[in-house]
Design a protein that fits this description.
By secondary structure, this protein is an all-beta fold. The protein is built from no helices and eight strands. It has strands spanning about 35-40, 50, 60, 70-75, 75-80, 85-90, 95, 125-130.
């Protein structure tokens, strides 16, 4: 079903399409492919998108200007921009990235002692920084379902 400017400029609210239910739920259900809700001039070049995959992963993505994305999946949650990431897996491990940049955050896991003085660093035991050189940093078990 396609609705083209159904009520555009005909009323005080300029609503293109409205679905109202006075009681109960509104269900939109997909079985074998992604369910997408997009916003923009065309569906092929949206400014933003909400996508739910058949595995239950949910993506909210801003495609206008700098890309940013929120992903919720069976292994955790991730917030990404074009230059970094914050993810939390189901074990509670927080990953601050990107992997290609060395140690932007100092934590007990990534830097257990000060490299200059040798004094122990007291910090979070569940935060890992991307690219930080440490054999004891917890690997995140978050696995992106993004293609």
């Amino acid at each position: 079903m396609t609705v083209t400017n159904a009520s555009w400029l005909t009323g005080p609210e300029d609503v293109g399409y409205r679905l109202t239910v006075n009681q109960g739920q509104i269900n939109i259900h997909g079985i074998t492919d992604d369910l997408k809700i997009t916003m923009g001039l065309t569906p092929d070049a949206p400014f933003g998108e909400i996508r739910i995959t058949p595995t239950g992963a949910i993506f909210l993505e801003n495609m206008f200007g700098e890309l940013s994305k929120l992903e919720v999946s069976k292994t955790g949650i991730a917030l990404r921009t074009s230059v970094g990431e914050i993810s939390v897996d189901l074990a509670g491990t927080v990953f601050l990235g990107p992997m290609s940049v060395a140690g932007a955050v100092v934590t007990t896991l990534t830097h257990p002692v000060c490299y200059v003085t040798g004094a122990p660093i007291l910090g979070s035991a569940s935060v890992t920084a991307g690219g930080a050189p440490s054999p004891i940093a917890l690997p995140s078990t978050f696995v992106s379902e993004d293609i």
